């Protein structure tokens, strides 16, 4: 897993935890944490897919 994808995944997990804590405490700032979790989740998927595409491209050109 690429390093940036791993960092984004950690941020996503921390944002989800912060959202849960915010909502349990009755604060609606948890909505911001949910949005941050969604953004970081998408970033993680993006970096994983980009790494897979780069690996497939280098494997495809190596056989030529």
**In total, how many beta strands?**
0
Question: Could you give a short account of the major beta sheet?
Answer: none
**Averaged pLDDT:** 94
- Taken from the alpha-carbon principal axes, the silhouette is rod-shaped
The number of helical elements comes to 2
> How many angstroms separate the termini?
26 Å
Which sequence of SSEs, written as H and E, runs from N to C?
A: HH
What structural category arises from helix and sheet content?
Answer: mainly alpha
Cα-atom radius of gyration: 17 Å
The helix content is over 70%
List unreliable stretches of 5+ residues: none
Estimated share of beta-strand residues? under 5%
Structural description of this entry:
The protein is mainly α and 64 residues long. The protein is built from two helices and no strands. It has helices at 3-24, 30-62. Helix 1 (3-24) runs antiparallel to helix 2 (30-62). The two termini are 26 Å apart. The relative contact order is 0.17.
Describe the SSE topology.
Elements (H helix, E strand, L loop, with lengths): L2 H22 L5 H33 L2
Structure at a glance:
Helix 1 (3-24) packs antiparallel against helix 2 (30-62).
Index terms:
rod-shaped, 86% helix, mainly alpha, 0% strand, 2 helices, 64 residues
